[in-house]
Amino acid sequence: MRQVHSSAFAAVLVITTSAWAGGGPYPVDAGYDQASSRTRAQVIAELREAQRLGLMSSVEGDFPNIAVSGGTGNAFSAGDPRTVRARVHAETVEAGRLGVLGSGEGNPPVATASQEELIAAAGRRAVDDILVAQRAVSTIGK
Length: 142
Fold this sequence. Notes:
This protein has 2 domains: 31 residues; 74 residues, no CATH class. It is 54% helix and 3% strand. It contains 4 helices and 2 strands, in the order ααββαα. The longest helix has 28 residues.
């Protein structure tokens, strides 16, 4: 029995050492051996310029407030959580109604162009409803 274990161990050792024969890490680290063409001062200058233009926040973990396009020119502020939440919710509900939400494994369903337009229209309607409600509240307060 001991001889069987010894020979099995030897076989496993031979098989696994051949896998290490190539040496080095797998996958091969590509691109890390090249030096950057920019100096530290240039990188710092680019960072400060981006912060000055408002493209990058100076607070760690904070994201810039940019305009996000809805695909058809209906841009909304990414900083307004109610608008974003309403749009995402309405688009998700519409996609579920159309049967283009994937769940589980396998190929996800692909929306046609007309289905994508219906989904985007649902999001636009939700944003418009929020904006109308905000205007109504602001006019009542005046």
